[in-house]
Protein: Phosphoribosylformylglycinamidine synthase subunit PurS
Amino acid sequence: MKTRVYVTLKNGVLDPQGKAIHHALEGLGFSGVNDVRAGKFIELDLAPGVSESDVEAMCRKLLANTVIENFRIEQDQAA
Amino acid sequence: MKTRVYVTLKNGVLDPQGKAIHHALEGLGFSGVNDVRAGKFIELDLAPGVSESDVEAMCRKLLANTVIENFRIEQDQAA
Structure:
């Protein structure tokens, strides 16, 4: 079973990586970009029987820093 | 308009970051994880009039290394 975890910085937390991407896009001549926020995307291939609460525990303990980051869990039912 | 870009390593490309996360999860006592793949998630706040083909150009030129990475663009129609 595939489970996807999206980790994003909370609003109000400075995002230097996003700023750098924004600046680089402008340098390449792309206009019309107001803001860029960078995050992480982690795909877990889980054995059957691993519940969403287990994944949430993984996020809280390792995958996300919940002081400055939010996370979102998306389970792929098909696979 | 918010546009989300997901950048993932292609299948077959070694993923040391994912391996490290997998190892750390096992070290924390989480069992049932078969595999972990790490990727990037970039949220762009675009001005109206920036088309999906523009975003694709940004991905090809800057956001993704298309030799080893795939990207997926998701446009948020609501915002």
User: Anything to note?
Assistant: The helical segments of chain B are 16-27, 52-63.
